[in-house]
Amino acid sequence: MKILFRRSLYTLGGLIAVLGLFHLEENWRGRRAWADWQRQQDASRNAFDLASFVPPPVADGDNFAKVPLIADAIEGRRPLETSLGVGPHELDAIQFGWRTGTRVDLDRLDKLLAGRGGLQHMLESSRPGLDAFLEASRKPGCRVSMDYARFPEIQIPAFLGFRNAARTLSLRALAELREGKNDAAFEDVSALFRTVHLLRKEPILIVQLLRLALTDIALQPTWEGLQAHAWSQEQLQALQRQVGGLNLLESFARTWRFEQGLGEADHLQVVHERPWQRTYYPSSYSDSAKPGRVSSILRHLLIPRGWILQDAVSASRNMTRIILAPLDVSEGRIDPRLQDQELQTAGSGFRMPFGPHWAQIFRLFADQDIRVANDQASLDEASVACRLEQYRLEKKAYPERLSDLAVPLPMDVIGGQPLHYRRTADGGYVLYSVGWNARDDGGDPGQGKDALTQGDWVWRISGRSN
């Protein structure tokens, strides 16, 4: 029995020694990998500095986010759609069709809202809230209240009901256009674009995704007004300045870098945890239950801190090469082929078994880059379309070629070449970007689920005014 006990002790001691040596080596590897990565970031002047991402302070009286109607929605107390009297799913049936040259079917929507007394009744009941939203958008600045000192455990803003509120304002603009109330429609469209502009400095991903949604919503009445020749020269100049001043690539590059910093900080938080703490491993969980105390201690003993540091480097490096590297903010370009190529090895280089989960995250992020490129191309096309309409008002016809506008124009966000343009037989025109496949498809847009990745990104104006 004594011999067995002694052998057991020797075996246990040997296992502990092996485990200790294993931890020592892997921790050394992790610290070296992290130090090398930090040196690379410093050398490229890309070291994460939280202070550079915190939006500048804005006086309460000038702050869009401090208007009571807006603050209640941002902080999750009262959805903005509720303040307008709009139900959470009432407007889900709206189909904004400017990408395919299709007007919103207000008659169909009026029938769907029959239980609310019809579209006009809904818009009228929403008028006080919409007018308050419009006035709030005139504020000169925006700073959402977030405690950045708690980074990375900052409270994410709610922005409840913003999308439906924007849909409602867009619908009001569309109804006003149909009634010939062009000045009122212009004010509503401008309020949407001002909101997109006001939120540009917020680094939180959910805010930037909201900006994409608001951009899509605002472009429908913009396009319908152009199709109907409803905008005056002064309004076209103002719209051109608004859409031309929106740089989605720049905002998202900041946001992706912020997300990268959040990921690094999350890993470091786990590295420095105590054995009895129950900190999540970054991207290793899929439910809201924290790990138990026993499992927290076991993972601390069995998994070297160096592995977590190595995974922090792998996650950050993947973020750089897959999401950030394809974005060229200085040139206003995005490289689809580089991103698609780098996605092939997404999730590689991880020591712990979370590579597939990280790969899924990077693919989701990459999908948002496609949306960013598409919306930036659409804004650039809208900017050019405003200049084309100004030309038509003066010359009574659209130009034969874009160079006839004799002003600097945005280049295609995909590839950096001039946007494609041609007049159509009915006196209208087709303006388009080559789209995510980087191939000129002659102005034919993608269809269905492939609409963003196949075909061209098209802005079409018919010669027949609707």
Protein model, in words:
It is built from 15 helices and 5 strands. The longest helix has 42 residues, at 2-43. The chain is mainly alpha-helical. The strands form 2 sheets. A 3-stranded antiparallel β-sheet has the order 3-4-5, with helices on one face. Strands 1-2 form a two-stranded antiparallel ribbon. Among the domains are: 2-51 and 254-370, no CATH class; 52-207, no CATH class.
Helices and strands, with pairings:
Blueprint: H1 2-43, H2 68-74, H3 80-84, H4 106-112, H5 119-125, H6 127-136, H7 162-178, H8 182-198, H9 205-227, H10 233-244, H11 248-271, H12 293-302, H13 305-324, E1 327-328, E2 333-334, H14 336-343, H15 355-395, E3 420-423, E4 429-433, E5 457-461
Antiparallel strand pairs: 1-2, 3-4, 4-5
Helix pairs in contact: 1-13, 7-8, 7-9, 8-9, 8-10, 9-15, 10-15, 11-13, 13-14, 13-15
Short note summarizing the structure:
Among the domains are: 2-51 and 254-370, no CATH class; 52-207, no CATH class. Helices cover 54% and strands 4% of the residues. The protein is built from 15 helices and five strands.
User: What is the end-to-end distance?
Assistant: 97 Å
Output the helix-strand order. Answer: HHHHHHHHHHHHHEEHHEEE
The percent of residues in helical segments reads 40-55%
Q: Count every helix, treating DSSP H or I runs of 4 or more residues as helices.
A: 15
Overall pLDDT, averaged? 89
Number of strands: 5
Form type: elongated
**Main structural class:** mainly alpha
List keywords for this structure.
15 helices; mainly alpha; elongated; 466 residues; three-stranded antiparallel beta sheet; two-stranded antiparallel ribbon; single chain
